[in-house]
Each structure stands twice: as C-alpha cells, then as structure tokens.
Design a protein that fits this description.
Helices cover about 35% and strands about 15% of the residues. By secondary structure, it is α/β, with parallel strands linked by helices. The chain has a single domain, classed as 3-Layer(aba) Sandwich (Rossmann fold), CATH 3.40.50. An eight-stranded mixed β-sheet has the order 2-1-3-4-6-5-8-7, sandwiched between helices. Strand 1, helix 2 and strand 2 form a beta-alpha-beta unit. The longest helix has 15 residues. The model has no long low-confidence stretch (mean pLDDT about 95). Bound molecules: thiamine diphosphate and iron/sulfur cluster (SF4). The site of iron/sulfur cluster has 12 residues, from helix 8.
Length: about 290
C-alpha cells in the first residue's frame, strides 16, 4: 500500500531537498545525530539514482540493522529493513526471484562484516549481481559504540576501554580477494566522487562494492577525541590519497596516517545468474 508523501518541514524557508521525490518524507525527521556522515551518504545515493534515471520501481534497497540500516526506511523505493547481518542473503533471494530488479544493499560495517561477514564473502565469490554500499564508521554506532571488525588497533570503544587489540579488516582488500567485480572507497567528504562510484557500481553487473568512510562523532569520534563531524571531514581532507588502481592490500587504515581512496577493482566476469542460466541451457532445461 503506497504511503502518502508528507512534505519535509523546511529548515530554511522556501528551500527543499532537491531529491525529496526519492524520500519517504512521512518518516522524517531522521534519527541521525548532528555531524553524522549518514545524511551525506544517503544524499549521494539519491543523486546517483537521479543520474541513472531508472524507474524507481526497478530498484530495491535492502539493509540490516544499525544507524546505516535506517536508510532502507527513508528511501521512497521498495525497501527492506531486514534482521541484523542478513541483508545480503535477503538481497540475493530478491535478485534470484526478480532478475530484472536492481538490488542495492546499504548497511553498516558491523552488520555486513561481523555477523554478516560470511554472507559477504560468499556473495562476492559467487559474483551475485548486487551493489553493496557499506558505511564504515569504525564501530557499532546504533548500539552505543562497541568494537567492530573495522575498529583500528588501539581504538577506544565501549567494549575496548583500554584500546582495541584485534586486527581490523581492510574492507577493500577483503572484497577484492573474495571476488568482487568492482571495489571502490570514498569518504563522505567526496560527494561527487562517491556519487560517481555509486552510479558505476549500480550500472555494472556482478557484485560491486563501495566502502564509504563516514564520521560517527557521537560514539567513535567522541571516545577517540576526533572532534566533531566537521573535524573528521577535515581529517579525511588531510589524509585521503586518491590512488585509482592501487593494490587493495595497500589500502589499510591506520589512524594518524594517510590512507587510500579511489577505484581499486573493475573487472568483467560472469555473474552467478549468468553461470546458472548457461548451465540450465546446456542441460536443455528451463530456468
Ligand atoms: C542478531 C542481532 N544481534 C545484535 C543486534 C544489536 N545490534 C543492532 S545494530 C548493531 C550494530 C550496528 O553497527 P553497524 O552495522 O556498524 O551500523 P551503524 O549503526 O554503525 O551504522 C547491533 C550489534 C541485533 N539487532 N540483532
Ligand atoms: S551514533 Fe554515530 S553512526 Fe549513529 S547516527 Fe549517531 S553519529 Fe551517526
């Protein structure tokens, strides 16, 4: 049953969000903290959708649980806010049942790489035709800032009050090694570049992955004395080096050091569905 749009209250009189048509305005105001990067990440996605010009009925967004996961509830598309860690299997089922649908997974680093990590590596290995957008804020934001699989060594979180002693994942390297067809990383400061990467990732067939580095000033930023959201963006401006085609192994993130952003992988290979359909044809059967 379609939800009736309600206009967003105007923060500045007479000024509306140019991409409002893609938002479930009846769900606003959103839950995100001031200075959080999630608004920018969502905005880039809406502009990317607009640039693609696809029929909104041909796009579905799937998320798990977390601050990032709320995105599924805010987009005016068929969207699914699934259980924690299970966005990828849900999205895989959707794609297999409706191969013409463009299926986008939008979720957090904890959701996709801790509880959901196994789903990610196998979807990448199979080259399932999904676009996975992962907001990496270095901790579990929604539940108060616990350690996660991307928390840097020595990072302070509610569950590592003496500093993290687990080696973090380098998501770019993980995605590339697991077999993703497209791998890019940008920060929420890189609005246009991030939008471009989202467009490329959504246009491309196979499993495409974009890591979005994003401030969480309320939890990770505050505990690690990174300042407010704007200070974290200044940090990105100072330390992010654009290196298209760099070896993903080199893309580790170590606090206080420069880190790599850009497009790391862009290869062509058959998708899961293409392989499956070829096998069915070979055996003379029907899909
Ligand atoms: C099965 C299950 N385990 C744990 C939780 C609690 N939980 C909700 S969100 C979340 C982590 C969110 O972190 P992340 O995915 O990084 O997203 P963020 O909030 O940082 O955007 C956890 C552990 C849950 N909802 N369900
Ligand atoms: S807790 Fe962190 S990730 Fe969640 S809305 Fe607040 S700033 Fe953003």
């Amino acid at each position: 049953m379609p939800v009736k749009a309600k206009p967003i209250p105007e923060a500045v009189p007479g000024v509306r969000h140019p991409m409002e048509k893609y938002l479930r305005t009846d769900r606003l105001p959103h839950i995100w903290c001031a200075g959080c990067g999630l608004g920018s990440a969502l905005s880039c996605f809406l502009y990317a959708l607009d640039e693609l010009g696809w029929d909104p009925n041909s796009v579905a967004v799937v998320s798990g649980i977390g601050c990032t996961g709320r995105i599924a509830g805010y987009v005016r598309l068929d969207s699914y806010h699934t259980t924690h860690g299970r966005a990828i299997p849900f999205a895989t089922g959707l794609k297999l049942a409706k191969p013409d649908l463009h299926v986008v997974v939008f979720s957090g680093d904890g959701d996709l790489f801790a509880i959901g990590g196994n789903h990610f590596i196998h979807a990448a290995r199979r080259n399932v035709d999904l676009t996975i957008l992962c907001v990496n804020n270095f901790n579990y934001g929604m539940t108060g800032g616990q350690v996660g699989p991307t928390t840097p060594l020595e990072g302070l979180t509610t569950t590592t009050p003496y500093g993290n002693f687990e080696h973090p994942f380098n998501l770019v390297h993980l995605a590339a090694s697991a077999g993703a067809s497209y791998v890019a990383r940008w920060t929420t400061l890189d609005g246009r570049r991030l939008q471009r990467a989202m467009v490329e990732a959504m246009r491309k067939k196979g499993l495409t992955f974009v890591e979005i580095l994003s401030p969480c000033p309320t939890n990770y930023g505050r505990r690690n004395k990174l300042g407010d959201g704007l200070d974290e963006l200044r940090y990105y401006a100072k330390h992010a080096l654009i290196r298209h085609g760099a070896d993903p192994k080199e893309a580790e993130i170590v606090p206080g050091h420069d880190f790599l952003v850009g497009k790391f992988v862009d290869v062509e290979k058959p998708t899961y569905l293409e392989m499956y359909e070829a096998k069915v044809r070979e055996l003379g059967g029907k899909r």
